[in-house]
């Protein structure tokens, strides 16, 4: 009887030891690898700011894109489809980081690309699945961080606007493209101290009114002469862009017009008003 009892006790001790060894092995094998805690784009880069670029477009000359990322993880996205329409498309919302802290997703963008890889002073637009775009145009899906004029618009607290009057402002760029015309045929605009403007649109003269408050600027409906022109399309685009302006900057001898806080719609250089 004692011998049988000893066998039972020995058998139970053997089972207990096996269970402990198996449990210990499973715990060690099932432990997930520790997540990397090193630097990533979210915690190591100065990512907040305004990013600008012209992205490829299937049925237009390019999509002029401005994406502003704010420290509170909100964003503003602005697009202009070059060569197709002057209309400005804007959206705002929240964005989130992926678990690795390298990519962001714009949560309000449901009908198009919404993910970007965050790099040093750059954003790389990703495809609909969150992967880098491949092919011949792969290197063209970049937005570059802006640090001069656009940032100045966001941070300026000076309510005294630079003077616009007493100068003839000759057009140099339209939607980021240098003006391809003779200086004598380049559009220009002049601001009067009486709240009136006058200018040349490339073929026709125009007049109208304007209002300023700080860096805010708006134009009233304009009247133009009605000459037929070979540059009618460019002239029409110039006048339409003027009507959409709502703020401006003056730096040295350069004047730039903006809508909201997008890239400059129009850029001018100061000339003597008697030119």
UniProtKB/TrEMBL annotation:
The keyword Signal applies. This is Copper resistance protein NlpE N-terminal domain-containing protein. Residues 1-17 form the signal peptide. Residues 163-268 form the DUF306 domain. Keywords: Signal. Pfam families: META (PF03724), NlpE (PF04170). It comes from the Bacteria. It comes from Rheinheimera marina. InterPro entries: Cu-R_lipoprotein_NlpE, DUF306_Meta_HslJ, HslJ-like_sf, Hsp_HslJ-like. The keyword Signal applies.
